[in-house]
Design a protein that fits this description.
This protein has 64 residues and is mainly alpha-helical. The chain is built from four helices and no strands. Helix 2 packs across helix 3 and helix 2 crosses helix 4. The termini are close together.
Length: 64
């Protein structure tokens, strides 16, 4: 699935989180977060984990 990379980066800035912080909160590897930020693609399960960690709905992160 395609993630809105800008939206993700804005949410990180809004919540004053680093990619490493997000990885820890979402219980995924920092490398996975880096790949997502770089290429904007992720598995649905991972998007769900990221959305939960950021306190948003998965649909807010996905590009339709």
């Amino acid at each position: 699935m395609q993630i809105d990379k800008i939206k993700l980066q804005l949410l990180l800035a809004e919540k004053e989180l680093s990619a490493k912080d997000l990885a820890e909160m979402a219980e995924i590897s920092p490398q996975t977060i880096s790949k997502i930020i770089k290429n904007g693609r992720s598995k649905p399960k991972t998007i769900g984990k990221i959305a939960k960690a950021l306190g948003v709905e998965p649909a807010e992160l996905v590009v339709f």
